[in-house]
Amino acid sequence: MTIVNNLCRNTTHYVNGREMFKDFPEGSEQIQLGMGCFWGAERILWKLDGVWVTSVGYSGGHTTDVDYPKSCTGRTGHAEMVHVVYDPKVISVEEILKVFFENHDPTQGDRQGNDMGPQYRSAIFTYTDAQMAATKDAVARYEAAYGKTITTEIGEAPTYYAGEDQHQQYLAKNPQGYCMHGPTGIVCQLPEPKLERANPA
């Protein structure tokens, strides 16, 4: 997966001071999550123990010169995404997906609340087979819990286009800013860890 950064000039995370687009710790993993407006989604995710760094940007579209105004037209095909780098020894992808599915409504198609358009769709873009398997399992569990079809787009991680400076960690810079994320009231237990079968003697 490629990170393209033509828009963000200050690449230091406003909250934790870490580099957002490179020099990730050895052993860390990445995932892209779309939960509607990326401001509130990023704040939820940067607070999680085990998350190294987050940023916001655009992914899943068909143009290579996307920016915020263009994405807002809905014509580029991009979704507002949070790029998450995390330590899988501290937080599992299943735990991240639990936060994802329980803090936005993944059944609304091309919208999230009053935010309407394909740029606000629910989406998960994965980097590994294990992440994809965990995502498919989570979709099945939360579809049963919501009692509706999960409309979250799932796919392998495409090119991620980092967003403009003013959107990075927006709610840390603007604490009273717009946020529509929070618990939906739908809760699922984490799946039981799969035990590896011992080799026969």
Describe this structure in words.
The chain is an alpha+beta fold and 201 residues long. It has helices spanning 38-46, 68-72, 93-102, 129-146, 170-173; strands at 3-4, 29-35, 51-59, 79-86, 111-112, 115-116, 122-126, 153-156, 160-162. The protein is built from five helices and nine strands, in the order ββαβαβαβββαββα. The strands form two sheets. It has a seven-stranded mixed beta sheet with strand order 1-9-3-4-2-7-8, covered by helices on one side. It has a two-stranded antiparallel sheet with strand order 5-6. Helix 3 (93-102) packs parallel to helix 4 (129-146). The termini are far apart. The model has no long low-confidence stretch (mean pLDDT 95).
Give a brief outline of the structure.
The chain has 201 residues and is α+β, with helices and mostly antiparallel strands. It is 23% helix and 21% strand.
Secondary structure topology:
Blueprint: E1 3-4, E2 29-35, H1 38-46, E3 51-59, H2 68-72, E4 79-86, H3 93-102, E5 111-112, E6 115-116, E7 122-126, H4 129-146, E8 153-156, E9 160-162, H5 170-173
Parallel strand pairs: 1-9, 7-8
Antiparallel strand pairs: 2-4, 2-7, 3-4, 3-9, 5-6
Helix pairs in contact: 3-4
